[in-house]
């Protein structure tokens, strides 16, 4: 499902958090969103998901203005995993993932076997089947994050918005979740801090101080000069002995 | 079609489980009292009144059962169920374990309205205490709602906290008004009477109260039950609920107004009975977990049975005297809740 941002701006109480951001993500594409802390990644995610309304500009989902869809219609198309979401409820891991089916259920369309299948599949994708009966408060940070991702997958969205989905994960699960996301046919926008992981996505967008400063193929958008300038460090291409694809290496400037 | 049938089947099955328990509780409520009456006597009275059976029954007994105890038990049940469900809904919506039906200023406003009518003499004696209490409750709730709105509860992020804070401010204000009126113009007897009413009092309940409380409790329950899945979606906050397709503002508005209105009516009939709306939801959560489709019926049933039982105890525990029911709910409720808390903790391991 295609999503397009047309000169989005967002400000709260006179402070501009995002200014004139335009980008389009094609169906099936995975776009990485990178930028320093406070550059506006989460804000852009909230605008794309309709959780916040832009001060100026429009979001188009499959060429339709997002503002014209109801919350339920949006939720049947877009799933978002926010940076932090916690609860004090004594809810089980499985029921967290079951929440993802909410937009597809109604009084006349109660829970069915199909919903159970989607939940099972999502739990399998994030390798959390054995944790299904466990209580939320007993899970580790990474396990909780994987459940949030599973919840989003169970939503069966056409567009997946992930805000730093790998920040609590061990290296195995970082790679396996990213791999799974890239292989999904779903259009995905993923905010990342690991620039080398961003390199493996289809395209990369760089945000700085609320502006879109680079957008394009990974090697081009994350050219060492760009990275050095916007992150305030010294970056260069490096290669290891195995001589595969080059990766970025960093040093304090 | 089959979906609708499944739904009807679910509802019917639930009713089949709940109704006998409720009926037994109401029967106990009519049998037990200062003079104990046999169950067959109660059933004969019911047969006479409902089906015109014309069975021979002592008219005094018939009067006690039909005009006093039965309406009292029915209102206690309706009130317990409504308060418990309101507590479940507000705790979920405001994401606050300490939320109860009175958190929106309703009980404080009701007491101000009650003392304004009975002590300050508002309306020159033409207005009843319940009328004053109901309007006071609505006034306080209106104040809280406007304050919450002005404090930015519209924007979703910190909305829940803003509503709770506005409720606290409103409660404080109206409690101070109540204290002011009592200090300024009440004599000791009046003050004691108001104290009694504030702790909950079912002795004035008659049939017209039943016709108000029972349908309202059922309507409130249906509105809340219809939103069970939406309440589940609030587990991770209102943003997460919105991203799951819940129209957050509308659901908040509908549910808050529904619970406020039901609570205001209940308070105006029986006074502000504490504890039920706060603790029954937690007790029910320990029993069946946090999913609202099971939690809501269990809380309603537990609340109804609990309040009917508390009313029985309040009538018989001190011979010749009726205790305020709020005292009983807290005295029985607190220890039993302590037991549930401790056992719940153990089974969680
Ligand atoms: N409600 C608000 N009021 C004022 N400033 C805000 C508000 N919300 C966010 N900001 C500011 O907007 C900027 C962008 O925030 P955002 O959360 O989008 O950053 P981010 O790129 O996701 O950062 P991070 O990498 O730390 O997650 C930050 O400087 C933040 O302090
Ligand atoms: Mg962020």
Automatic annotation (TrEMBL), chain A:
Q: Which domain of life is it from?
A: Bacteria
The yes or no answer to whether the keyword 4Fe-4S is present is no
Coiled-coil segments: none
Write down the SMART domains for this protein, in alphabetical order: AAA
GO function terms (MF aspect): ATP binding
Supply the CDD domains for this chain. Answer: ABC_Iron-Siderophores_B12_Hemin
The UniProt record lists the ABC transporter domain at: 3-234
Keyword line: ATP-binding, Nucleotide-binding, Translocase, Transport
Q: What does this protein do?
A: Part of the ABC transporter complex HmuTUV involved in hemin import. Responsible for energy coupling to the transport system.
Q: What is this protein called?
A: ABC transporter ATP-binding protein
Q: Which organism is it from?
A: Leisingera daeponensis
From TrEMBL, chain B:
Q: What sections of the protein cross the membrane?
A: 73-94, 101-123, 129-151, 163-183, 253-283, 295-317, 323-342
Listed A to Z, the keywords are: Cell membrane, Membrane, Transmembrane, Transmembrane helix, Transport
- Which domain of life does this protein belong to? Bacteria
- Where does it reside? Cell membrane
Signal peptide (from-to): none
The keyword Membrane belongs to this UniProt entry's keyword annotation: yes
Entry-linked CDD domains? TM_ABC_iron-siderophores_like
Please give, as recorded in its UniProt entry, the membrane topology of this protein: Multi-pass membrane protein
What family is this?
A: Belongs to the binding-protein-dependent transport system permease family. FecCD subfamily.
Which protein is depicted? Iron ABC transporter permease
Source organism: Leisingera daeponensis
């Amino acid at each position: 499902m295609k999503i397009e941002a047309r000169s989005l701006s967002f400000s709260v109480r006179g402070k501009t958090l995002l200014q004139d951001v335009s980008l389009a993500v094609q169906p099936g594409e995975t776009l990485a969103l990178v930028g320093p802390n406070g550059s506006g990644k989460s804000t852009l995610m909230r605008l794309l998901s309709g959780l916040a309304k832009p001060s100026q500009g429009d979001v188009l989902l499959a060429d339709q203005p997002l503002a014209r869809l109801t919350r339920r219609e949006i939720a049947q198309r877009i799933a978002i995993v926010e940076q932090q979401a916690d609860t004090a409820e004594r809810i089980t891991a499985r029921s967290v993932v079951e929440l993802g089916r909410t937009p597809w259920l109604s009084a006349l369309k109660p829970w069915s076997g199909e919903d159970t299948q989607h939940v099972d599949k999502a739990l399998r994708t994030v390798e959390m089947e054995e944790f299904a009966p466990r209580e939320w408060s007993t899970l580790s940070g990474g396990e909780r994050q994987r459940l949030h991702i599973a919840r989003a997958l169970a939503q069966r969205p056409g567009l997946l918005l992930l805000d730093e989905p790998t920040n609590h994960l061990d290296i195995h699960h970082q790679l396996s979740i990213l791999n799974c996301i890239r292989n999904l046919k779903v259009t995905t926008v993923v905010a990342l801090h690991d620039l080398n992981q961003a390199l493996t996505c289809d395209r990369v967008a760089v945000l700085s101080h609320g502006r879109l400063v680079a957008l394009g193929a990974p090697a081009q958008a994350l050219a060492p000069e760009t990275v050095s300038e916007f992150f305030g460090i010294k970056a260069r291409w490096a290669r290891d002995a195995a001589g595969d694809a080059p990766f970025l290496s960093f040093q304090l400037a | 079609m089959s979906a609708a049938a499944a739904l009807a089947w679910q509802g019917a099955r639930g009713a089949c489980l709940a109704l006998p328990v409720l009926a037994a509780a109401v029967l106990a409520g009519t049998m037990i009292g200062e003079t104990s009456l046999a169950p067959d006597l109660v059933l004969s009275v019911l047969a006479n009144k409902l089906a015109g059976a014309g069975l021979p029954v002592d008219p005094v007994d018939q009067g006690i059962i039909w005009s006093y105890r039965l309406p009292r038990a029915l209102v206690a049940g309706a009130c317990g169920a409504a308060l418990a469900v309101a507590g479940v809904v507000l705790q979920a919506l405001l994401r606050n374990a300490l939320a109860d039906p009175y958190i929106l200023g309703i009980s404080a406003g009701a007491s101000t309205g009650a003392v304004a009518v009975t002590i300050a003499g508002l309306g020159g004696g033409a207005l009843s205490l319940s009328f004053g209490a109901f309007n006071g409750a609505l006034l306080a709730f209106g104040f809280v709602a406007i304050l919450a709105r002005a404090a930015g509860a519209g924007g979703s992020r910190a909305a829940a906290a803003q509503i709770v804070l506005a409720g606290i401010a409103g409660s404080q204000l109206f409690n101070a008004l109540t204290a002011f009126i009592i200090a300024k113009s009440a004599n000791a007897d009046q003050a004691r009477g108001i104290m009694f009413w504030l702790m909950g009092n079912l002795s004035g309940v008659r049939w017209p109260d039943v016709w108000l409380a029972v349908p309202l409790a059922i309507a409130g329950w249906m509105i809340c039950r219809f939103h069970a899945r939406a309440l589940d979606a609030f587990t991770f906050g209102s943003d997460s609920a919105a991203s799951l397709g819940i129209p957050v503002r509308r659901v908040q508005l509908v549910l808050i107004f529904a619970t406020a209105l039901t609570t205001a009516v209940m308070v105006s009939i029986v006074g502000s009975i504490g504890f039920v709306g706060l603790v029954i939801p937690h007790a029910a959560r320990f029993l069946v977990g946090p999913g609202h489709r099971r939690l809501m019926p269990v809380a309603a049933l537990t609340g109804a049975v609990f309040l009917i039982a508390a009313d029985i105890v309040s009538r018989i525990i001190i011979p010749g005297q009726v205790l305020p029911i709020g005292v009983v709910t807290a005295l029985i409720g607190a220890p039993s809740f302590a037991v549930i808390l401790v056992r719940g903790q153990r089974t969680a391991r």
